[in-house]
Design a protein that fits this description.
Strand order of the largest sheet: 4-7-6-5
Shape: globular
Structural class: alpha/beta
Order of helices and strands: HHEEHEHEEEE
Helix content: 10-25%
Strand content: 15-25%
Number of helices: 4
Oligomer: single chain
Radius of gyration: 18 Å
Distance between the termini: 37 Å
Largest sheet: 4 strands, mixed
Number of strands: 7
Length: 163
């Protein structure tokens, strides 16, 4: 039987099927407690609509691999950050035409300040590499992505926002 952590590491994200949940940094821990495999995951944001699919896909993969009991737990603290995306995950996003996020903004501990302006982010085109692209809309297929356009190749593309 394949090790539980290896099984979970191969489960792809339902919204970004070019990367695994492990590469995306959603999988926090895989451990065995007696006969039960306990998997801890953190959603990319608290309202992530894919969480039920993520839990189901992990559970199904482990059951199919021969594990009889699976418990998938969701934790939201500490909050997920795009800094948790692995280098292979970033590479796969770019290869699929999605500009990977840069470093997440740093802030002091405590309440999150409310700002009504956005900070400019330099995002290179994942197709041609042009350094200056523009935002078409701040929301893409999911809330954690935005739609951008490249003035050089004129192609639209998604960018995973820094969180």
């Amino acid at each position: 039987m394949k090790e539980a952590a290896q099984v979970v590491a191969s489960v792809v994200d339902p919204e970004l099927p070019m990367v695994t949940l492990a590469e995306l940094g959603v999988v926090r821990e895989v451990r065995e407690e007696g006969a039960t495999v306990v998997v801890t995951v953190t959603p990319t944001y608290s309202g992530c609509p894919a969480m039920e699919s993520i839990r189901s896909d992990i559970r199904f993969s482990l059951l199919r691999a021969g594990y009889a009991e699976v418990d998938v737990r969701t934790v939201i603290a500490p909050a997920w950050t795009t800094d948790w995306i692995s280098e292979s995950g970033r590479r796969k996003l770019a290869e699929a035409g999605i500009a990977p996020p840069g470093p997440a903004p740093r802030r002091a501990a405590g309440p999150v300040p409310l700002t009504l302006t956005t900070r400019p982010v330099a995002v290179a085109c994942p197709r041609c590499g042009h350094a200056e692209t523009s935002v078409v809309t701040p929301f893409g297929a999911t809330a954690c992505r935005e739609l951008r356009r490249c003035p050089a190749c004129r192609e639209p593309f998604e960018h995973m926002k820094e969180i």
